[in-house]
Amino acid sequence: MAELAILGGTGLTSLHNMDIIRREVMHTPYGEPSGALTYGNLCGNEVVFLARHGYGHTIPPHMVNYRANLWALKHAGITRVISICAVGGIRSDIAPRSLVIPDQVIDYTWSRHHTFFEKDLTQVTHIDFTRPYCEEMRCALAAGAASAGIDIIQGGTYGATQGPRLESAAEIDRMERDGCDMVGMSGMPEAVLAKELDLCYAACAVCANRAAGRSDGAIEMSEIEATLEDSMARVRLLLEHTITSTCRQRED
Ligand code: HPA
Description:
- The protein is α/β, with parallel strands linked by helices.
- It has one domain (about 5-250): 3-Layer(aba) Sandwich (Rossmann fold).
- The chain contains five helices and eleven strands, in the order ββββαβββαββαβαβα.
- The longest helix is centred in the last third of the chain and has 24 residues, at about 220-245.
- It is globular.
- It starts with a strand and ends in an 8-residue tail after the last helix.
- The protein binds hypoxanthine (HPA).
- The site of hypoxanthine has 14 residues, from strand 5, strand 10 and strand 11.
- Hypoxanthine binds near residues 86, 88, 208, 211 and 224.
């Protein structure tokens, strides 16, 4: 039975290296997930794949039903989730094609459904979010990268913006002052919803471009798409090695 899920982001709407076993359409109390859960075999392990923006890449980040996606995975028996997400690099060493395993998050999104704890409560619930990502999964990603010989940047603060527009240069300056190292649009509320469901969740951020104002001229979608296309072979290899790597470090 699958216990690990991969949430694919922009540039990763399918896993070519996975042999598909079946697809399952799930309905949730929070509405419809981004698509059917795709069960497949990756290096001898059964995994579930779900394309966050839909298999045709038609759902923008502010319209993704994050609650339905996470709820569906949880109710399919998933305990661990690897999220693949595209980012713009703010820190100078986070250059296009870099892979980063963030360890912190700052949330600038608004008016997204960001909690399961709002209705029919027996008591008000405030979950701990000191460490937004699961250390065990972050460690497995690092072990996978080492085993595959892939360079990754361990740690960094992910700033989640509302989108779908990209940021202004002044917004990126402010985010840098806040401590953000990279910027993306889909990292929240996904990370907190995973935590509310007690899923072991970590992200692999793929740098698609330098953030606004960090290179000459405008950010072109064609540049983002080409960089992601170019990076996904490494991401697929990283996933293969990660799911076969073990990690001794457990979360506190
Ligand atoms: N900003 C926000 N999200 C992104 C970016 C960016 O520059 N690049 C890829 N996803």
